[in-house]
Amino acid sequence: MTEFVRTEVRGRIGFITLARPKALNALSHDMIRAIASALQTWRDDPQVLGVVLQGEGEKGLCAGGDIRAFHEAVSEGGARKAAIMDFFTDEYTLNYTIATYPKPYIALMDGVVMGGGMGISQGAALRIVTEATRMAMPETAIGLFPDVGGGFFLANLAGHLGEYLGMTGTVFGAVDACEIGLADGVIPRASLPALCELLATGDWQDSDAVLDAARNFVRESLPPAGLAPGKLAALRDVIDTHFGHGDAQAILHSLAREARCEYAGWAQETEDLLRSKRSPLMVCVTLEQVRRARKLSLADDLREEWLMMRCVFNLDGRTGAEGVEGIRALVIDKDHAPRWQHANIEAVKPADVARFFDGERRAADHPLATLGE
Question: Keyword Hydrolase on this protein (predicted)?
Fold first, then answer.
């Protein structure tokens, strides 16, 4: 266990609290192991009928993985660099465990919920957001791709929203999350303690009763004050028009041609974002990832993402450590001037992208080979 994860059983509910608020509850390897251990224990405990995931602090549930630790491990080299994939093996196994958990797993997606925070939430039986929720898969900004099952849950959004959200890393709130299918309901942040108290003190007979009670609480809650309106629904057609093109270059050219006054500003901002604030290579890789994931199960998607992560940190010795440079520029040195492998998206060749997908997902020695069996 770890000081950054608290687990307790109250009544017939297991509570998991991420307790690293100074780091926006970023997930360390020890935290992932602690969550997995609690879920394994409660799976076989007849006293526990459901699980609630929550984050400590006002800022949010979880901002993602501990990317500082990734940078340190790769920079240090040796055994520590070699062991970095153990983190992703355990994290992706946890993502799958949550998605297939036999008891209701309820994620309170309050505040910042990004990257790894999405990974431990999207597989939940009930995903609850608040007026403070700020959700995104922003990995392309730091030279990564939307992992933790991101390929799978982005690919299953309507139209080409998955490509748009994955490539741009756009941040969105509770209304959008509910409307596009990445959340199940919204309640006021101030009501979260009452929901937890209800679940902890209820005389539940079975797991279905727990889930029904949580759903009813959400359904009967008053809308939060100050809830920001959604923005994605109004953009759906234009997103599909542009992000449905065959490759990243064609998407950029389409955005540049957007002449309708109503969307000209959005198109220009989106093109500028992709060109100046995202890794050219990872924008292209993410597009391919989301489209491939439409044909994959969650287990196969996680297996593929594990292979892709070896490439992004140059653990296969062939691709250049794009993620290390992005983390350095935005998190370590904070000069916001990453030296990406490619000057622009036009410079990315199909072979550069293909390297991320040439591993064998079903290889017997893949550490996630038995996932889903």
Answer: yes
